[in-house]
Amino acid sequence: MPTALTDLSRYPIVQAPMAGGASCPALAAAVSDAGGLGFLAAGYKTADVMYQEIKQLRGLTRRPFGVNLFMPQPGTADPAAVGVYRSQLAGEAAWYETPLGDPDQGRDDGYEAKLAVLLDDPVPVVSFTFGCPSREVLGSFAEAGVYTVVTVTTPDEARAARQAGADALCVQGVEAGGHQGTHRDDPAADNAGIGLLALIGLVRDAVDLPVIAAGGLMRGGQVAAVLAAGADAAQLGTAFLVCPESGAHTLHKQAMTNPVFVRTELTRAFTGRPARGLVNRFMREHGPYAPAAYPEVAHLTSPLRKAAAAAGDAQGMPLWAGQGHRLARELPAARLVEVLVAELDSARAALALGRRVR
Questions:
Q1: Is the pLDDT of residue 3 over 70?
Q2: Which residues pair with 204 in a beta bridge?
Q3: Vertex 113, ends 111 and 118: CA angle to 5°?
């Protein structure tokens, strides 16, 4: 088992754990075998499905890899607000000919069961999103030889992760695609996210832990920039989402460079928690009215999202994407790692000579 971040991979490149299907065993294995660090995303999956994916991944690679867990969420959602949003989505249910989901399916994402699996049969790395585990949980993983990473979006969250005993931090800038990994979903803090380069500096000033930088990174030159800013590794999600090994829906992959989708925004429309995606019809029509209610809204819209995907309707799907999505390259994952490393080396050489980085 690894004892330092640099033990995990040959190159400082991490494939982001993208819940919803993109981060599948084939993608994680390809990235790890190419010298990066591949990740599985256990979010929205049962403990058994997570275990089966781990078994599959172990059959594909002998290199280190990680598994990401969602933290249980507090019951702070307003049932009345969820009810109003449910009424607003009635037209979507009729259009896709599917009932809305039950918003009260649970808030813990099978967390305890997943912990039990990962402690019984440890993997090299476990990361956490939407909060920080207890000192006891992180201590148990340390005893099992597991390297732990906590996603943070502010210096205060970084301090909390250090105090709890995390080995490293995934520092997520507001540019990142998908959900913002805030430890507490505070509507008053909407649109107050911190850009990645500034956040790296703030976190570095607050704590002395290894940093994996995440947020809008698509090129090796950008990886060089975050390393120069103080990060130890760079995490890329959107860049790997379009790889052929990715389990993302074909429409999701195509949307990254489709001129129909001109920008990204943070929205609560699909899940009740701020998440960055390509602006489509569903976001425009429902984003302004979606309550702060995660995972209740995620449960509510789950059948709609599945129906839109089955119908081939990208305007009704969550098209999670970072701000750099236009730079996506449809390359095999191993080739993408190779290209990123070459760009990183070139950028470092250019910086050393005082030249402009392309």
A1: no
A2: none
A3: 95
Cis bond before residue 295 (omega within 30° of 0): yes
pLDDT tens figures, 98-116? 999 999 999 999 999 999 9
From residue 114, alpha-carbon distances to 61, 109, 118 in Å are: 22, 9, 6
User: In the predicted model, is pLDDT for residue 149 greater than 70?
Assistant: yes
Region of 347 (left: φ > 0; alpha: ψ -120 to 50; beta: rest) is alpha
How far apart, in Å, are the Cα atoms of 253 and each of 130, 243, 314, 334, 342? 25, 8, 10, 18, 24
The label of the residue with tokens 């390809």 reads 30
By three-state DSSP, how is residue 218 classified?
Answer: coil
Return d(Cα 154, Cα 140) in angstroms, integer: 25
Is the model's pLDDT at 344 over the cut of 70? Answer: yes
pTM: predicted TM-score of the whole model, two decimal places: 0.96
CA 267 to each of CA 187, 223, 237, 274, 302: distance values in angstroms, whole numbers, following the listed order: 11, 27, 18, 5, 16
| pLDDT for res 2 | 67
Angstrom distance (rounded) from CA 158 to CA 142: 18
Pull the structure tokens for residue 208: 């002395």
Instruction: Give me the sign of the Cα torsion angle 16, 17, 21, 24.
Output: positive
**Six-digit token string for 8:** 């995990």
Residue 350: predicted pLDDT = 86
Residues shown for the chain: 358
- Residue 330 phi/psi, 5-degree rounding, is -80, 80
DSSP 71-130: PP--S---HHHHHHHHHHTHHHHHHHT-PPP-TTS-SSTTHHHHHHHHHHS--SEEEEES
What residue type is 19 in one-letter code?
Answer: A
Cβ contact 38:62 at 8 Å: no
At residue 354 the predicted structure's pLDDT band, cuts being 50, 70 and 90, is: confident
